[in-house]
Write a structure and sequence with these properties.
This protein is α/β, with parallel strands linked by helices and about 180 residues long. The chain is about 40% helix and about 20% strand. The protein contains 6 helices and 6 strands, in the order βαβαββαβαβαα. Strand 1, helix 1 and strand 2 form a beta-alpha-beta unit. The chain starts with 11 loop residues before the first strand and ends in an 8-residue tail after the last helix.
Length: about 180
Amino acid sequence: MKTIQRTERARILIAYYSLSGNTARVAKDLAKLIGGDIESIRDREHGVGFLGYLRAAVDALRRVPAHIGPLSKNPADYALTIIGTPVWVGNMTPAVRAYLQNNQERLHNVAFFITSGGTDATKVVPAMEAVAGSTAIAFKGFDARELQDPHVYNRRIAEFANDVERNVSSTTDVAA
């Protein structure tokens, strides 16, 4: 992956929730490409194992936000916040829903990425935009097949990084 250089550097925060590691991988690779700080969203309610997954899926389906752990970064300090989530039963995770709800007033500009078994990002992003109260400057979905194929994955993440870079210039009015 080639790192993208900006002449005018807007502060970027990449906040994500990941259970299997796929969304964390995309977040970390994106941070390498465009720069930015990372914030891992911690879900304090939904654990692992069958019952944990079942409860998480039901809450995602019901669109119930989770109780998330404390955050170390304030999105208000960033020109752009990129939020990543896996897709659970066709929806964003309860942890990301809580993050968006809790930070709606602090999000200057947003971009989104999702990881999924095969859900089209255009099916999830409108709900994320509604909860964030903001239209995404860019978004991208990464399905299971794309995450497994290095050539496809590298192309897709570079496309997303370029989309963000192309649109981030309008966000540099926030203190860097």
